[in-house]
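Much of what follows relies on a compact textual record of a protein's fold. A record is reproduced here so that you can trace the correspondence yourselves:
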Amino acid sequence: MKIQLVGAVLPALFLVGCNDQLPSDNQTNEGPVRIENAAGFTNHDQIAGLPGTPMAEREAVIGILNKRNGLTRDLNMKPGEALRVGKAIVRLRACEATAPWEEVPETGAFVQLDVQGNDKKWRRAFSGWLFKERPERNVVQHEIYDVWVKSCTMNWPDAGPDTLKVGKSGGTSGASESSAEKLPAEGSTDANEAPPAAPTAAAPAPANAESSNDR
């Protein structure tokens, strides 16, 4: 993933998370349970200039592992959503994937992990970017839970303002249109345009040429 894209999103992500909605302590469902009124990604203006699918419309799959029972789950999330699994809350702030024409494909997501302790208090265990192709860049270090990014679904624009579109004949659309205006339709004639001149007959060969051949 290009560093400039991550750098454009990162400052806005540091501003969120201070007022995250936490579930009540009596909630015991192992989930995943969606947390209502979760603090979403509220700084869209800071990333409005980035190409591709708008951040709020992207979809990511986040994997979570409970090391005690060995159970794993796939969480389908959009940026701004939060899901609770047991005593863990996974928040997705952003996700990004490189364009199809990039030489090295990369997928990343900004994830936050909150874990409820034995004292019933919630604590932030992790907050940062996770990368699918190179997970060693940033690792979730927790004795019970592990979280990783599996995918980020988004689209990139197929063409830009400087893209040349190829026509049916193989040339650019501009060249095809200009040549089509200059060439008349096959079999059509213009009343104001003189027909092409008929081909002239070939001049007879000089007499001395035949006599030279007889010799």
Strands lie at 33-34, 59-66, 71-77, 82-85, 88-97, 107-116, 122-131, 145-153. Helices lie at 3-13, 173-182, 207-214.
